UniProtKB/TrEMBL annotation:
This is SecA family profile domain-containing protein. Keywords: Protein transport, Translocation, Transport. PANTHER family: CHLOROPLAST PROTEIN-TRANSPORTING ATPASE (PTHR30612:SF0), SECA INNER MEMBRANE COMPONENT OF SEC PROTEIN SECRETION SYSTEM (PTHR30612). It comes from Rotaria magnacalcarata. GO terms for molecular function: ATP binding.
Length: 243
């Protein structure tokens, strides 16, 4: 990771749901050590939790619980929370834009169709001065989609060299690991029109992407989730990145 002064290569688990590095975690049954041997890394000791407690038991140690969530889950999940912790759930009324889920999901049968759909949708939004956030399941998918989009943009640029929209498509902003700099969610850096961001779920959860006023007027940030998430919370958090 970018936080560790040790420059030797390591096997690091990346959480698919959040995109964050789990540098202190290991796969069990010596799988982690097997991968370390395979890739020529320094062997680490097999970890064993001597003391542990479940989330339910831990939270029941407290007399009062308070929490806030934008994506709490379904009715059944809320009922389960109520039964487990004996808590009341209060819903704060919110409203979504009319076009929040304006387009139906596109299910692709093969990789080329998948990447072509992503490219065509991105290009369509860039023409309208929108910016696009493309969220990928893994670092490997970020690299693959970036490569495919740049290749398509270069091909289209040869056929239409005067069209400036291909500048954004051939130079996407890539965000893969949490130690990498992501300027649009920090400080006073604003996301402007015609920017393409390709990222893991790091940019989909807990990242407030700030938009310039011109982009807001053009329709804001368009979010493309390139995979089917394990649950609806991940999807809703991704689509709410610029909220």
């Amino acid at each position: 990771t970018g936080l560790d002064p040790d420059l030797n290569p390591k096997i690091i688990i990346i959480d698919k749901n959040t995109g964050t590095d789990q540098s202190s975690s290991q796969w069990h049954e010596e799988l982690h050590q097997f991968l370390q041997i395979k890739h020529g890394c320094k062997l680490s000791l097999v970890s064993l939790k001597a003391v542990f407690i479940s989330n339910v038991s831990y939270l029941k140690l407290y007399q009062n619980l308070y929490g806030l969530s934008g994506t709490l889950g379904s009715r059944d999940e809320k009922q389960l929370l109520n039964e487990l912790y004996n808590i009341d759930l209060i819903k704060i009324p919110t409203s979504k834009p009319k076009n929040f889920f304006e387009e139906r999901p596109i299910i692709s049968g093969y990789k080329e169709q998948w990447t072509n759909s992503i490219y065509d949708e991105t290009k369509k939004k860039i023409i309208k001065d929108r910016s696009v956030l493309i969220i990928c399941e893994t670092v490997k998918h970020v690299d693959y989609i970036s490569k495919c989009l740049v290749k398509r943009a270069m091909e289209d640029l040869q056929n239409d060299p005067s069209n400036i929209i291909y500048d954004s498509l051939k130079k996407p902003y890539v965000y893969k690991r949490e130690h990498e700099e992501f300027t649009f969610g920090q400080g006073n850096e604003l996301l402007n029109c015609g920017t393409v961001i390709i990222a893991t779920n790091l940019a989909g959860r807990g990242t407030d992407i700030k938009l310039e006023q011109k982009l807001v007027e053009a329709g804001g940030l368009h979010v493309i989730v390139t995979f089917l998430p394990n649950n609806c919370r991940i999807e809703e958090q991704a689509y709410g990145s610029a909220a």
